[in-house]
Automatic annotation (TrEMBL):
Compositional bias ranges of the Low complexity kind: 560-569
SMART domains, per the entry: TGc
Residues annotated as domain Transglutaminase-like: 486-556
Biased composition, class Basic and acidic residues, residue ranges: 320-331
TM region(s), chain numbering: 24-43, 50-70, 108-130, 137-154, 160-179, 227-245, 631-650
Pfam families with a match to the protein in the record: TgpA_N (PF11992), Transglut_core (PF01841)
Keywords: Membrane, Transmembrane, Transmembrane helix
Domain of life of the organism encoding this protein: Bacteria
Protein name: Transglutaminase
Organism expressing this protein natively: Actinomadura darangshiensis
Region Disordered, residue ranges: 318-337, 560-625
C-alpha cells in the first residue's frame, strides 16, 4: 500500500505538466514522494499513533527539502538549522512572487521548483495517511483531485487526456490494492481443483500433482468489466449527447436550437493577456502590411462589454449561419460612425504557425470586409470576427477596415446617445464601492463635456495620479482589487488601467467597454510591421455619437510602460501655440467648447444623472448586470432547511402510514362504529405496528436494540434502562405482550389498535425523558431509524440498477443463442 500510494501521487502529479516549461519539477516531486513514503514506513514500523504518522511524513518532507535546497546552510548537510529554514522560507517567497509574475508555463526557477516539490510532498503525506494508515482509500482521492484543480484553474485548455488517464489509473490501482489487502486479511483463499477434460471413473481420486485454481469467478469478473465499461461509456457519451453541454450541439453535429444558433465559448481573454505579457521569449505573434503609411493602428481581438463587479467579459455570442464571413460579403456598418472623416485601410496579416487557439481574428477597427479561409463569423454589434472550430495560427488573411479620425471638436459636440447604447454600455453593478463613485466625480470635477471628462481620466492615470506600470502585479480577481489599484497600490499593467477607466467612464454616464488585442507593433521596413507577444494590450473604448467607438490610452507608454502604446491625438490636452490660441488636438480639461454653453452635452447630462450614486435611478438596470442579490442566498437557505427537514418528514410519514393501514374505513351508515373508528381489522397487524414503532423510537433516542431478544426480554431490558412510572411500565408490558401473542399464539390479541397507539406515545415520552437534549433533537430532526431505511432503500435501488445492467449486458448473448437455435 505504501508503494501504491506513492505511485498514485506521482501519477496524479502528471497533471501539473502544463504549469512548467521544463520537466525538472517532476523529479523534484519524485524525491519528495520517496521521502514521505520512507517517513510513513518508519512511523508504521514504530507503531506510533496516526497523528504522529502525519508528523513523520512532514518531518521527512522537511528533511528532503532541506537537503536539496539548503544543504549548504544545514547542520551535517541534512539536519535543518535556523539558517537553512530561513533560507527555505525566502526561497518559497521568491517562488510565490515568480509564480504570480509569470503566466503558465512558468520557468523552473529554484523557488518554483521547491514549491512544486513541497506541494506534491504534502499531497503524498495526506494520501499516505488516509490510504495506508487510516484505510480510507476513497478519501485519498480528494488530495489527488486537488492537484488537477490547479492547472484546470490556471490553464485555459485544462489537462490533457493522457495525464488525466494516468492519474485516474493510479487512483484505481490504489483502490484495487486496498481491496486486495482487505480481502487477504481474512486468510488464505479457498481453492478448488481444476475440472479435468475427461470425466474420471467412479471412485477415482485426483492425482497429487493435479493443479488447483481459485474458485471460478470468470462470470463475475466479466459482469464487473461490463458494468465498468458501461459506466465509462455513459460518463463519456452522455455529456456529448446533451445539447446544453456542448456548444456544437449533439455530438458536435449542429446547433442546439431550431434556428441553428450556437453559443460561442472561448478562454478567458484576460488570462491570455497576462500570459502574453509575461512570456520570457517575447516571440513574434504576427506580421502585417498596411496601405496606410502610419500603419493599421491597434489590432483588436475582443470587445468586453460586461462588468460584473469583479471582472470584464463579453456578452454570450449567439452565432448563426447568417453571420458567416464570406469573400465578397461586407460586414455590418460600425455603430454611430456618421460624422467623423473615414478612409479605408487594407491590411494583410500573417499569423505565425506557433500561435495556438487564436479563435478571434486580430483586425483593425472597424473591419468592413475580411477574406480568410475557414468558417469565420462576425458579431454584428461589436464586429468581433471569430470561429467556432478554426484557429488563426498559420493563416494569412486580408482585412479592409474603416479608419475614423475624429477631431476634438467633433467629439466635444457629439449628439445624444441612442437608448440601446445607454442601457447596455453604462450599466454599473450595485456592488461597486462608493469610493470609486466619489473618485470618478473628483477626478473630473469641472469638466462639462464627455470628451473633457475622458481626457481628464486619461491624464490622471498617465500623469497626475501617481500610477506605476508593473507587470508583476497580480491580475484583479475581485472588486476589492480594483479599489486597491485606484486608491492604494496604484501599480498594475494595461488590464487594470483599461478596466478602471472604462468603469469610471460608465459611472460618469459615458458608454464604454474594454478592448483587447495588440498595439501596432514595430515597423521593420516601410509598410511592414511585426507584432510580438509583449505588444498584447488592453484599452478602453468610449462611444461618441457621430464618431462611434473611440479609443483612449490610460496605460503609461514608452520605456516605463507599455512600450508600443500610443495615445490618440484627440485625447491629448490642448497646448497653447504662443499666440493666445490653442491647437485643435483636444480641448483642455478645464475648457468648455462652444457647444457646452448652448446645450448640455450627453456626457454632462449623464454625469449629473449619475451623481445620484449607486442607489439612484441610473442603476435600476444593474440587477441584470451581475449585482449582488439576496434572492439566491434566500433560496439556498430555504433549500438547506428543506433538506434538513426531509428525515423528520419521512419519519412522520412512516408513522402515519403504519397506523393508517390498520384503521378501517368508516361505514356509510351512521352508528357508533362509524364515529369511533376504534377497532382494527387486523389485531395482529396492530401489535406488529406498535412493536415496530417502539423499536424505531428506541433507535431514534439512541437505545440499543438487540434483534435476538424476544419481546419479553426486550421489554425487560428497556424497563431497566428507562425510568418508568406505573403508567409507562403498564404501556411497555402491554406492547410486549401483544407482540408476543401475535408472534407465537394463534389466539386473538386482546388489545385494540388505539390503546396500543396510546401506549407507544407513552413509551416514546419515557424515551425522551431518559436522554439529554441533544439526543431528543436528533430523534426529531435526524431520526436514525429513517436514515437506516433510506440507506436500505438506496442499497435496494443500487441492486436493482446492477441487475438491470447485467440483464442488458446479457441481452446480446441471449439474442445470439436464440438465433443459433433457429
Amino acid at each position: 500500500m505504501t508503494v501504491m500510494a506513492g505511485m498514485a501521487t506521482l501519477a496524479g502529479s502528471l497533471g501539473l505538466y502544463p504549469l512548467f516549461e521544463k520537466a525538472g519539477w517532476f523529479w523534484a516531486g519524485f524525491g519528495a514522494v520517496l521521502a514521505v513514503a520512507g517517513g510513513g514506513l518508519l512511523a508504521r514500523r514504530l507503531r506510533v499513533p496516526a497523528l504522529l504518522d502525519l508528523l513523520f511524513g512532514l518531518v521527512a518532507l522537511l528533511l528532503y527539502l532541506n537537503l536539496v535546497y539548503a544543504s549548504d546552510r544545514a547542520w551535517l548537510v541534512f539536519i535543518p538549522s535556523p539558517d537553512s529554514v530561513h533560507h527555505l522560507g525566502e526561497l518559497a517567497g521568491d517562488g510565490w512572487q515568480a509564480a504570480n509574475r509569470y503566466a503558465a508555463p512558468v520557468p523552473l526557477l529554484p523557488g518554483i521548483a521547491m514549491l512544486a516539490a513541497a506541494g506534491i510532498g504534502l499531497v503524498a503525506v495526506l494520501v499516505d495517511l488516509l490510504a495506508v494508515r487510516m484505510r480510507r482509500t476513497a478519501l485519498a482521492g480528494l488530495p489527488l483531485l486537488a492537484m488537477y484543480s490547479v492547472p484546470a484553474a490556471v490553464r485555459e485548455d485544462g489537462v490533457g487526456w493522457f495525464a488525466f488517464g494516468a492519474g485516474a489509473l493510479g487512483f484505481l490501482a490504489l483502490l484495487m490494492s486496498d481491496a486486495r489487502e482487505q480481502v487477504g486479511g481474512w486468510g488464505r483463499t479457498v481453492t478448488t481443483r481444476r475440472r479435468p477434460r475427461e470425466v474420471p471413473m467412479a471412485g477415482a481420486r485426483p492425482g497429487p500433482g493435479e493443479p488447483v485454481d481459485p474458485p471460478d469467478a470468470s462470470a463475475l469478473a466479466a459482469s464487473g468489466r461490463r458494468i465498468a465499461a458501461g459506466a465509462v461509456a455513459v460518463a463519456v457519451l452522455l455529456p456529448a449527447a446533451v445539447p446544453g453541454l456542448q456548444p456544437r450541439g449533439v455530438f458536435g453535429l449542429g446547433g442546439g436550437s431550431g434556428q441553428g444558433t450556437q453559443t460561442v465559448t472561448t478562454p478567458d481573454p484576460l488570462v491570455s493577456l497576462k500570459r502574453e505579457l509575461t512570456r520570457l521569449d517575447d516571440s513574434v505573434v504576427l506580421s502585417y502590411t498596411s496601405s496606410d503609411p502610419e500603419g493599421s493602428g491597434y489590432l483588436r481581438l475582443y470587445a468586453l462589454d460586461r462588468f460584473d463587479g469583479d471582472r470584464w467579459t463579453y456578452s454570450p455570442l449567439k452565432s448563426s449561419s447568417k453571420d458567416r464571413v464570406t469573400g465578397d460579403r461586407k460586414l455590418p456598418a460600425p455603430p454611430g460612425l456618421s460624422v467623423a472623416p473615414v478612409h479605408e485601410v487594407t491590411t494583410k496579416v500573417h499569423v505565425r504557425r506557433e500561435v495556438r487557439n487564436m479563435t478571434f481574428l486580430p483586425v483593425p477597427y472597424a473591419p468592413s470586409k475580411v477574406s480568410i479561409k475557414g468558417d469565420w463569423r462576425v458579431h454584428p454589434d461589436s464586429l468581433m470576427v471569430y470561429s467556432l472550430r478554426d484557429s488563426a495560427g498559420g493563416r494569412s488573411f486580408t482585412v479592409k477596415s474603416l479608419r475614423a479620425k475624429p477631431t476634438a471638436g467633433q467629439l466635444a459636440s457629439a449628439g445624444a446617445y441612442p437608448a440601446d447604447i445607454v442601457s447596455h454600455y453604462t450599466a454599473v453593478p450595485k456592488n461597486v464601492p462608493q469610493q470609486i463613485w466619489k473618485l470618478a466625480s473628483d477626478v473630473t470635477s469641472g469638466s462639462a463635456t464627455a470628451l473633457s471628462q475622458a481626457v481628464r481620466l486619461q491624464q490622471w492615470f498617465t500623469v497626475n495620479g501617481g500610477f506605476t506600470y508593473d507587470l508583476s502585479a497580480p491580475a484583479p480577481q475581485h472588486g476589492s482589487d480594483l479599489v486597491d489599484f485606484l486608491l492604494h497600490s496604484k501599480r498594475g499593467y494595461c488590464e487594470q488601467y483599461a478596466a478602471a477607466m472604462a468603469l469610471m467612464a460608465r459611472i460618469l454616464g459615458i458608454p464604454s467597454r474594454v478592448a483587447m488585442g495588440y498595439t501596432p507593433g514595430s515597423e521593420v521596413k516601410p509598410g511592414e510591421w511585426v507584432v510580438h507577444s509583449r505588444d498584447a494590450h488592453a484599452w478602453p473604448e468610449l462611444y461618441f455619437e457621430g464618431s462611434g467607438w473611440v479609443r483612449f490610452e490610460p496605460t503609461p507608454a514608452g520605456a516605463a510602460g507599455q512600450g508600443t502604446a500610443v495615445a490618440p491625438g484627440y485625447s491629448q490636452p490642448a497646448v497653447s501655440n504662443g499666440g493666445g490660441q490653442e491647437n485643435e488636438a483636444a480641448p483642455s480639461p478645464d475648457s468648455t467648447s462652444p457647444a457646452d454653453g448652448a446645450t448640455e452635452s450627453p456626457g454632462a447630462g449623464a454625469h449629473h444623472r449619475n451623481d445620484e450614486g449607486p442607489g439612484g435611478d441610473a442603476t435600476a438596470q444593474d440587477a441584470d448586470q451581475g449585482g449582488v442579490s439576496p434572492v439566491p442566498w434566500l433560496a439556498g437557505a430555504l433549500l438547506v432547511l428543506l433538506l434538513m427537514g426531509v428525515p423528520m418528514a419521512l419519519r412522520m410519514v412512516a408513522r402515519r402510514r403504519r397506523w393508517a393501514a390498520l384503521i378501517p374505513r368508516p361505514s356509510s351508515s351512521p352508528g357508533p362504529a362509524a364515529r369511533t373508528r376504534a377497532q382494527a381489522s387486523d389485531p395482529a397487524g396492530a401489535a406488529h405496528a406498535a412493536w415496530r414503532e417502539m423499536r424505531a423510537d428506541a433507535l431514534d433516542h439512541g437505545f440499543d436494540w438487540r434483534a435476538s431478544d424476544s419481546p419479553r426480554a426486550a421489554a425487560r431490558r428497556l424497563g431497566e434502562l428507562l425510568e418508568l412510572d406505573a403508567a409507562g411500565a403498564r404501556a411497555l408490558t402491554r406492547i410486549a405482550r401483544a407482540e408476543e401473542l401475535a408472534r407465537y399464539s394463534r389466539g386473538r390479541v386482546p388489545e385494540p389498535a388505539e390503546r396500543l397507539r396510546a401506549d407507544v406515545r407513552t413509551v416514546r415520552e419515557s424515551f425522551a425523558a431518559s436522554v439529554g437534549r441533544r439526543a431528543r433533537w436528533r430523534a426529531r430532526l435526524l431520526p436514525p431509524s429513517t436514515m437506516a431505511q433510506t440507506r436500505a432503500a438506496l442499497r435496494t435501488a443500487a441492486d436493482r440498477v446492477l441487475d438491470v445492467t447485467a440483464r442488458v449486458n446479457e441481452l446480446p448473448s441471449r439474442l445470439r443463442l436464440r438465433f443459433r437455435r433457429r
